[in-house]
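Entry 12.
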Amino acid sequence: MKSKFQHIKKFQFVFLLVVGVFFLWFIFFSLPRPLFQVPYSTVLFSSDGQLMGGSIAEDGQWRFPENDSVPNKFRICITQFEDAWFDYHPGVNPVSLARAFRQNMASDKIVSGGSTISMQTIRLAKKNPRRTYFEKIVEMLQSLRLEISYSKESILKKYVAHAPFGGNVVGLDAASWRYFGKLPHQLSWSESATLAVLPNAPSIIFPGKNQHKLELKRNGLLKKLKDNNFITEEDYNLALLESLPQKPNALPQMAYHLLHTASQNNKGERISSTLNSQLQNQLNSIAKRHHQNLQVQEIHNLAILVTEVETGDVKAYIGNVNNPEKSHSDDVDIVKAHRSSGSILKPFLYENMLHRGELLPNMLLDDTPSDITENYDKTYDGLVPAEQALSRSLNVPAIDMLQKSGIEKFYHQLKKLEFSTLNQPAVHYGLSLIVGGAEVSLWDLSRTYRNMVFQLNHPELERFSTDIQFTDLNKKIVEKNSAFDVQAVYLTMKAMQQVVRPTAETGWHMFGKNLIAWKTGTSHGFRDAWAVGMTPEYVVSVWVGNADGEGRPGIIGLKAAAPILFDVFQLLPTDKDFVEPTTGWVAAETCSLSGYKSGLFCSESKIIKVPALAENMPSCPYHHRIHLDATGWYRVNSDCYSVSDMVSKDFFVLPPVQEWYFQKKNVWYQKLPAFHPSCENDNSIAFALIYPKNFTRILLPIDFEGKRQPVVFQLAHRHRNQRVFWYLDHQYIGETIETHHMPLTPEPGEHTLILSDESGNRLVKKFRIVE
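Predicted 3D structure (tokens):
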């Protein structure tokens, strides 16, 4: 008796142990974690839900990440075809299992599985193991467990996202796009029914294969929907008339480079971007059209970025264009690439100097030949107003501005604006920082110009988000202090609205206001063409060139990038102008000719509004009071002429080199009169060298045959008819009159150049020739 009791107790223990193990397995280990361990396609959607592009999953399947819902039409179709009692059973349907068992026994083989959608979801998660009765029992238990952990809608979403739809198409979303080219919720009853019958036998029946069988299955499901009152007789008849899809279509690739960039941090995810699908499609057409024209000039790449000012959202993103056989670095995303800036940074220097009180809009800047750079058209004005220098994108005045402001100061400003490409110290760039010596990216330019305009639109904000973004995924809004002065920004935008448009846009001023502020840039060697345009609502940035850095004569900002810029702006609203800030201004009396603060001897002045710090600007350095004889024909001084007989007159006086160029463009310019014969010459400078300016080292050019070529020295003299005598190393080499050009070919080493004129003025310069 005792032995029997112990035997029963032992049996109970084993039974409880088995039950406990089963319970633990059922609760904690019966389901895979996560349920599906498969790679997914990376898919990019626009802000209005349109598919912009996708990349195939690592296992070669088109499998979109799980969607947040199942369209109602497809839900009805898939449940009616696969599992009509899906909403009512606990994961297992005994009636279906009994029917399947009876059919299998009658056929002496497995012809029906009796699986519910929940059980099929388990099979998909386990990657379709071999069909056995034991496996079926395990699936039933796991399905029961699945129903405990997930809602019916969650189970259906997982099934729909992982069900096979023929070939390498997995999931409803991928099937909807591959077979019908539309979103799942846009599917008709016929299309929904077509897709609903595919997971049942995806290797046998799918679009492009066994079309007749597929049509019979679809029509059978449609009849069931009609019989069960899910669709009307009219819907049924119309659905039967719809044709079946053929072979799978390629997915849209409207933003290929953005998809690649976004997938680097969000691989295998459904990325909801900020793109406007219509605008993106239109920009693709613009890029394709311009690319065809540029290819004739051996220019193969371009990029376009459109940013909404108010939100910082990127509305269109063209990272590159397609070339035949991918032969010109088409896969490179130019938007994030580091490229030579050309003169595209000039507005930031202009704004910064206005803000600091170092510049006024009409202040004259030096515009004479420089050893550092040259103007694009190789012409010079002698002196040019700062606003005009910006609108004409003149290089020499920009160098003058940077010298006045200081390289370190401007470099610090660019770092504050978060230009990520400035990875060298300021001394590395030198004065070339403003004319292409640094690298920038289209992304950084778009972000910084957007922040500039945003600050002008919201002068009341001291802090705001300075980031731009192409997706809300993992978006982090970090507010930062403004780096701009709104008054200076306004004046900068006004200057940039005066930029002359490309030839194709000639006559724009006849039809309306120019409300687009814009700037172009061209890098040294014609390798990069830039154009950036702004309105209060949008910033458009364009780059044109060759991704491999090959220069071409046609890679010029005004000719290559600007036409694209204005084609894009024709798609955007451009009827709003920048609003002038109502506060932060001071009134300043400025010289009408020089643009400086009005000096003691300025003959004409005007009152303008300037940023507050501009009050500290220096007075006009060009107006001087000159003493003349009684006739007004000659200059005199107290050493040679009676003070009581002198006539005083205020003159606008420029240094010789600047005067030489300035008078050619300004016929009103009045040169100083000559000194009276009885008066000795004073200490004013009569002449100066135009080129070369830097006499530390001069490089002698070498021709293709290796022969040393001369350096042409150029001189500007106040008095046109004066003879100038040239001496090299104390040896007389010739004289010039009117046009003072002298070609010299000194030997390498130290040299002394002596210049003298008929009036006894003398200039001595030492220099070194370097081969």
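Annotation: DSSP finds 21 helices and 28 strands in the chain. Confidence is low (pLDDT under 50) at residues 504-512.
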